[in-house]
Amino acid sequence: MGMTLRTSGFADIPAGTEAFPCSTNSVNFRLFILFLLAAFMPLIAAADIQLPPVPAPAIAPPATGVPASPEPPMEIRRAIAVGETAPVAAPSVTKIVFTRCAVPAPVIAITFDDGPNPDHTPRLLEMLKVRNIKATFFMVGRCVVTWPHLVKRMVEEGHEVANHSWSHPLLTSLGNTSLDSQIQRTHDAIIKACGIAPRHYRPPYGAIGMSQRKYIHEHFGYSTILWDVDPLDWKTPRNSKKVQERILANTKSGSIILTHDIHGSTVDAMPATLDALTARGYQFATVSQLIELERETASTVVATAPAPVPLTPEPTIPVVPMSTLPPETVAPAQPAKAVGLGE
After folding, report:
1. Where are the chain's structural domains?
2. 97-304+315-324 domain in CATH 3.20.20.370?
3. Any idea which residues carry the catalytic annotation?
4. pLDDT truncated to tens, each residue of the chain (343 aa)?
5. Which of 31, 84, 274, 343 has the most crowded Cβ, counting Cβ within 10 A?
């Protein structure tokens, strides 16, 4: 079968003529070669392509004598199957108010307010020393600057010192400027007396507003320490036996006990009270130690619990009406001339 060449004018020219010199066999051979090239061209092209090598990540040479740290292993996370308990993460909430502490062991903290007192605090310190009991003293600033040697002795004998304002006012009646002065002056006085900065404060009468406790925590780093055992030792007539009975009736593990070392009747009640608590198996700690024990316990529970542990809600801070407040319980600065902070 002969081949023809169709031109743009639609005229057919036979193969092998002067206008179309290629023979039919020649054309067929060339078409066969083109077919083969078209079929094998992708394979030839793929064989000829050479990808550039992937450069290794640049690694800074290690310092002399210090081996290069290996890359940390990649953490593989798996999906939690239905019915499987997810690991519990520790809460990040910071607790700043304590009425008591949640601890499993029979550990308690006994606290003394409104001192130091030149007559009763030394007697109390002797009682505590004989029994190797550590307490926490919430002190009034104007008493601290008057009897700094008692503050120094407290620290030397292992007790904790804390802030109880400068002159024992109702803090909820103060603005931030006066509040700051009450706390700052006492803070500075305690440091000057014993060289230790307090970590906690107790508001007089236990009355403190929510914004005030946040302000004090932000500016001083203080936790607000209240109580869950109150023997009402400030009420008259004062009775040592009643103080003892109320403390023994209400104390439990984690309790923070409120007492006042400016009252002779309270100090008189301490030997029998402390011995009875010890006989019941209680151990005494400072407030800071008790709080730390609660935090350690909470961390252990959270790490091992099969379900999230609900946070203990912060207690409501009472605002005490002026008409119901006890009479002034702060011992007056009796020396004729009290030593000021700048003297």
Report:
1. 97-304+315-324
2. yes
3. 113, 260
4. 555 555 444 455 555 555 555 566 666 777 777 777 666 655 544 444 444 444 444 444 444 444 444 544 444 334 434 444 444 444 445 899 999 999 999 999 999 999 999 999 999 999 999 999 999 999 999 999 999 999 999 999 999 999 999 999 999 999 999 999 999 999 999 999 999 999 999 999 999 999 999 999 999 999 999 999 999 999 999 999 999 999 999 999 999 999 999 999 999 999 999 999 999 999 999 999 999 999 998 887 555 555 555 655 555 544 444 455 555 444 444 444 444 444 4
5. 274
